[in-house]
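During the second year of the project, the team shifted from modelling isolated chains to modelling whole assemblies. The rationale, set out in the original proposal, was that interfaces cannot be judged from single-chain predictions alone. As a representative example for this report, we include one of the complexes processed in the last quarter. Its constituent sequences, exactly as entered into the pipeline, are reproduced here:
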Amino acid sequence: MRVTARGITVRAGACALLRQVSVEAVPGELLGLIGPNGAGKSTLMRILAGVKTADEGVVLYDGQSARQIGRRVLAQRLAYLPQGGVSAWPLRVENLVALGRVPHRGALGGADPPGPAAIEAALAAADLLALRHRTATTLSGGELARALLARALAVEGDALLADEPVAALDPCHQLEVMSLLRRHADAGKAVVVVLHDLALAARFCDRLVLLHGGEVVAQGHPDDVLTDDWLAQVYRVSALRLRPDDAGPAAVLPWHRLPPTPTAHQPPATSNAL
Amino acid sequence: MARSAVADVAILSVQPPRKAPGSAWLLGGALATGLLALLLVSLDVGRAPLDLTAAVTQWWRGEATLATLVLTELRVPRALLAVLVGASLGLAGAALQGLLRNPLAEPGIVGVSACAALGAVVAFYSGWTVAVPLALPLGGMAGALLAVLLLYALAGRSAGTLTLILAGVAINGFAGAATALALNLAPNPYAVTEIVFWMMGSLSDRSMTHVVLAAPLIVVGLGLLAAGGRGLDALTLGEEAAVSLGVPLARLRAQIVVGTAFAVGASVATVGAVGFVGLVVPHLLRPLVGHQPSRLLLPSALGGAVLVLAADIAVRAIPLGAELKLGVVTALIGAPFFLWLVLRLREEAWR
Amino acid sequence: MRVGLAATVGFILAAAAFAAAGREVVGPQRIVSMNLCADELVLRLGAPGTVRSVTWLARDPSISAVAAQARHVPVNRGLAEEIVPLQPDLVVVGIYTTRTTVALLKRLNVPVLELDVPNTLPDAMRQILQVAEALGRSERGAALVAEMEAAIARVQAEQRQAVQALPMQRTRPVAAVYNPNGFTVGAGSLVHDLMTRAGLRNLAAERRIDNYGRLPLDLLLMAQPDLLIMNSIADRPPALAYEVLQHPALRQQFKPAQVVTMPPAWWTCAGPQLVDALALLARAARAREDATVAGPARFAGGGDSSAQAEPRAPGRPAALAADLPTR
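Output from the structure prediction step:
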């Protein structure tokens, strides 16, 4: 499912959280949303997921608005994993993951034949089969994060929006989840992920969108977005670049902090293809 | 330091889910069987000795004897009302806890029952009930609705435990004072002493008229609450995830609020404020259904009916001279239980 | 000299006349009553103009038998602040009247007469005489009692006639008094005495409920009394206390002819209206003794309409009766 956002503006009181932001997530592509804290990444995710309405602009799903598609159909086709998720009740992991089938369940708990298979697949993909009977509140932070991701996978939607899915994970599971998302995208889904880890972003994402101060300052291939200029201007860091093998993606490692410069906050003309 | 509601839930729900999902049917079946058994006992117990089998056979044959009169006009309405009221309180408790994601939310604690009693008192003592009998449960519903709206205004959407309890204290205090004032100003001198009924509840000498008046509204409320199961499940993940799962959040909230108002409002208007049922029953049953909100709803309704029916039997069976009030029995069970929950929360705070 | 003698004789005669007049007992001139039953007695027995204040309940025709007379007398609500400025020379109270107010009056050296609750008809008549004497109106009291005794004699004569007219003696019917909140009246009360004299058996007494106790509805139904005696139900402000009186089970079990509607004013206080209550009960008892029930209409005493709230039943702890002057 193609998710298109055009001219999104979100205001909170006097200040603008997002200003004329346009992004597009296409099937088969892993799109990374990056930017410093407070840039508006999570807000944009919420807009894309249809959880929040923008003050200006439209969001289209395969060319249709959310109202045209219908809330239920949209929920079946688009999975959203919010940042810092919790489980209010101490459910068993497999029941927590099963919550992803709610859009398919029907109003009065109707049958959901593909459900059990979807749940099994999600548990396997998130490496949770050994933990399926554990209670959610006894999981570690990383394990819970994987469980919530599995829940999003269980929706079996055509699009997956994940807000910082790897923040609490150990390196092994970080790589595992990113590989999972990569495979998900390769299978033809549209995947959007918010990341803080520039190395992971550079390595796994097809395209990056760099947000700064509520605006899109750069979009495109990681090589084009994670330039020294942008890193200095937006993140105020300089990075080491390694290329483990010539054909593969570069490893971008933020290495030095840069002192703030007076002209640092003037964003140049954006390369906004849309 | 304020703790999130989630942390409190974790503390209060330390017991892991015990049984496999298939046993939900087992639990429901066990509760339903218990309910039927208690119904039979309830019909049999009373101040006057009644030969139940004889009365039933006479009623079946269409004979109008004294025994059938006591059975159909006294015992049966009492038992039916106990079941309806208990189901309302249990189900409303489970639904409110699911909506507010806090295991301490309960119609009595958050002030819904007290406000329903206020609404009913105003409707009754002002004389509107004489003209329109339906005014009584409607008054209760109006009061209950006011309470839930106030609760939202005071405690916000995902209320932390402290905020929730404080809001409940405020609403209970307001409702109690307003009820006392209304009774004080009522033109009938009996009114002042009748506050005991409104605060403590009683099922004695209720008639089929009460049942016929309250039952439709209670059933509508129960239906609204029971239909919210799917949304409450999704709310486990938080409001945003729930919306993304297709749950119409505003509609769900309205559904739970209105359902509570109907069920609890009509119940309290008929029977008085009976407390703690919506706290004890869902708490005991939650581990047995894997802590899943949707699976808790029906068992809570059955469990609430069982509890109130048992309490009503105790009220009649315990040989005290004066008549025990229903709310006294439920408070004797529920208040220590509530204290124990609070103590557990406090212990954890020191760790 | 002759003028002086005539003047002296005249003076002595006048003095003697005054002295003789002074020996006549002059009763209290500023009487205040703080209790409904006391109201009735002072209004019936007191000399005109001597009663300065009665309670506000006395004007309520549904509970007071002297509502008409009370209209011409100022009312009080049992507060010391209202009583003391009237400078009464006699205050008549009941033994359950607010203790603090009575204590205050006694401390202020106001003469207080405390009336007990009469438990039998003779007790009631003795109370009438007692109050009459305190008011200095003994002859009036005696006359009233004589009227009552004559009326009672007539009622009993009618009873004897009816008994003789019956081919065989039937057993006395069982009656149950059913008041708001399901309260009934047992042995040792004025109501019980009246019922017994009217030829009725009191269900509450047979169940050993003393004075005022609660009768559960299912017990009442199972006992199957012949008569149900209730207070007149008419427009009155709603209270839960009345709900049990309108329970459908009562309507189904008791036919209209089995229900006696007694105006509370008739048998609450000592006074001639007690005889009306006795007559009503006697008629109802006779009707039940007959093989056929006499007529479909309920047995109703007068004053069915405009009944207001009942005063709290006597025998309850004083604390509950704090806001109403009770017997």
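The mean pLDDT of chain C is 80. DSSP finds twelve helices and twelve strands in chain C.
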